[in-house]
Structures are given as C-alpha cells and as structure tokens.
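Minutes, project huddle
Topic: does the predicted pose make sense with NAP bound?
PN asked that the exact inputs be recorded in the minutes so nobody has to dig through chat later. Recorded below.
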Amino acid sequence: MSRNSFQLLDGNALAALWKQKIKDACASFKQKPCLAAVLVGNDGASQSYVQFKIKDCTDVGFESKLIQLSEDTTQASLLETIEALNQDTSVHGYIVQLPLPSHINEQTILAAIDPTKDVDGFHPLHAGRLMLSLPSFVPATPWGILAMINHYQIPTEGAEIVIIGRSHIVGRPLSVLLSSSAKYGNGTVTLLHSKSKNLKAHCLRADIIIAALGKPGFVTADMVKQGAVVIDVGTTRVQDPSSARGWRLKGDVDFEHVASKTLAISPVPGGVGPMTRIGLLYNTLEAFKSLNP
Ligand code: NAP
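Predicted holo structure (tokens), as shared on screen:
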C-alpha cells in the first residue's frame, strides 16, 4: 500500500473477481445450486435487497426462488413455509429476509431453519459453532469484510481493532472472528456500542476501525489515527434531491475528511455491500456442495 495516498478497498472490483470464481465453480456442476428467499411484507429496502440477491444468483449461474408473503402472514404460516423449504430437495440454501413484521418472533423463525440450508448463518447452531471456531456458515457481512481484509492483505495479528456496533449479524460475529486464532484473526478487538464511554479515545488508538452502527458520517477525522485502516459497513438512505430516486446511501464514516488520514478505506456504496452479497453466494455454493458431495 502506498504511504502517500490511501488505498481504496474496492468492493465492486473484488466482488466481480469472486463472482467469476463462483461462476467457474458452478459451470462444472450438472445440477445448479438453488437459493430461495422468503420475503414477508412490502418494505421497500427489503424488496430491493432480495431483488439484488436473485440477480446475483442469475449472474453466477445459480437457480433461485422468491417466495413473497403478505405483511399479515401469521407466524404459524411462515413456519409452514420454512418446513416446506427444509424438505424441498431442489433448494440447497435459503434466507428469510429480515426484519420481519413485529407480530412474528424473529428468533423462533431463525431457529426453525434447517442449519444445513441456513446460508445467512443466523441459526443459533452457527452462532455457537462460530464462537468455538468450528466450521459454520459465517454471516454474509462479516464474511465479506474478512474476504476484503484477506485480499488487501491488511495485517490483523496483534492489531488494535475497534468495531462500532454489536449486532448479531455484523459487529458481534466479526469481533469473534477477528479475535480468533486464525490467519485473518489474532487481533485485539474492542467492541463498542451505544453505552460505551470514551468512544473517541478507543477509536484513536485503533489500527483498524470497522464502523457498523447505522449513523451516517459518525466517524469523523478527529477520531481516526494517521495511517489507520477504516472499513465502513453503514448504509443509510439519506435525502438527495440531485439523485433520480431522491436518496443516496451514506456510510457511517465521513469519507471526505477521513480518507486522507487512512492507509486504506472502504467507500459507501461500493465497499462492504457488494462483498456481503458475495458472502451469501459463497455460503449457498458451500451448502450445495455439502448436500451434493
Ligand atoms: P443494528 O442492529 O441497528 O445495531 C447497531 C449497533 O450500533 C448497536 O450495537 C448499537 O448499540 C450501536 N450504536 C448505535 N448508536 C451508537 C453510538 N452512537 N455509539 C456507539 N454505538 C452505537 O445495526 P446492523 O444491523 O449491524 O447495521 C449497522 C449498519 O450497517 C446499518 O447502517 C446497516 O444498514 C448497515 N449494514 C450494511 C450491510 C452491508 O452489506 N453493507 C450489512 C448489514 C448492515 P446498542 O447495541 O447499544 O443498541
């Protein structure tokens, strides 16, 4: 990495490499991996995330199924759909798009998914196996961040790594992975959340900052040590009258002012997002291979 200018952690370019790799792997199979997505309700963001996932499947030669259920679907009815997917041998992996309507218990639903098909890696079995450093489906966003760290050869061993945000899908699993005894791990990880004190002081000693809190522009230049690596997970829709759709995605990092202080930084959009999508394809391929050894 250059000392004079920062390295852009280009998620689009890296995702294109991974898509080709997965497509090549898929070309030799007689049967194609199949990902199903269950979407409950009409949330605009969820609908577009699911459409991207379906398009990604087409791009790499996977089959896909979209199961759309109405907002008032009962928990019992959703559990029936899940049981049918567990039994359906033509589906190798599936996801239930989150968040679910408030009358449905998310954990009850996630626990009902057959872990061998749980390509989001949200089942308690996968969370436990990840904690024990046993093979598991790693949730897509942590998977994408590790792939990025690996590709750009960002050293993690002994590094001070500060993660902001402790969600079950991003910050917490990432904190376990980056502190584990593994090639991409061995970091000294600090996991910050909304009750953390001295947040700026923690960030200022970090060699790597990973921002995953959903507060646009939260990480400012005065919170970042010269030469740190900054990975921005945040994606919040902010109003933008100059855009045809009236909004744009903004990350948790004030990229404009932070970038020049860093050794490397991921943009939003075009950073972690595309690699998250690859994480799901990767897990689907692995699920297919384990069901078709
Ligand atoms: P989440 O479930 O909403 O959790 C947010 C976390 O941030 C919580 O742990 C919360 O602390 C913490 N937090 C909130 N305000 C804080 C503050 N002022 N200081 C320190 N910590 C604070 O978030 P998520 O689902 O992980 O998503 C986080 C962001 O990443 C969102 O913008 C989301 O859209 C984005 N995301 C992007 C991708 C991608 O592919 N690019 C994937 C997943 C998520 P408490 O636990 O104390 O409440």
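Observations noted during the meeting:
- The mean pLDDT is 96.
- The chain is about 40% helix and 15% strand.
No decisions taken; revisit at the next huddle.
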